[in-house]
Amino acid sequence: MLFFFVLSWLVLQRLIELRIAKRNEKRLIDKGAVEFRSGHYPWMVLLHCAFFLSLLAEVQGFGKTPHRYWIFLLLLFFCLQMARIWIITSLGPYWNTKIIVLKGAEAIKKGPYRWIRHPNYWLVTLELILIPLLFQAYITLFLFFLLNQSMLRIRIRTEEKALLAYTNYQDLLERQLWPKRKRNVREK
Q1: Which of 21, 95, 148, 178 has a beta carbon 3.0–4.6 Å from 91's, enabling a disulfide?
Q2: Closest to 155 (Cα-Cα) out of 166, 147, 167
Q3: pTM of the predicted model, to two decimals?
């Protein structure tokens, strides 16, 4: 019962987020924003869909039950969901599932973006650990942690190049506490 509640919550949440992202995408494109390196996006969508299918298959196929500390893990899960709302509202009309940048826009300096680079990616990474852990789906946990890290390497590099080229993102990088950006990284 708990598994289907959490899975339903996540699927509904992702559908709502896609609707918000589509609305924000249209508004940004109408203002002249540009989408960067969209070729990886279908793979990212596939990765997230496969995560849900893998989780469902592992939990149902192997009769997995909630972790013995499930209450604590569920509480952490809901804390992550509050953080997700904070992240999305902090970016406001700029939040998107794609890399879309409006030339000359100010980099967001509020919410978690004041202190942390890419808090949304940190949150997704934590979710991809916590959700399978909640249901003892360790194959899904390890597989999708590794796949997500590979995707994030591409995604973060692309996003940072776009933000550095079209916004005042460099100013924000110098103020953020963590993780610090390497100074010797060559921009292409």
Answers
A1: 95
A2: 147
A3: 0.88
Show the domain range for 67: 2-175
Mean pLDDT of 159-178: 83
Q: Could you tell me the CATH number of the domain that includes residue 49?
A: 1.20.120.1630
100 occurs within a structural domain: yes
Q: Is residue 188 part of a domain?
A: no
Tokens of 124: 């997704």
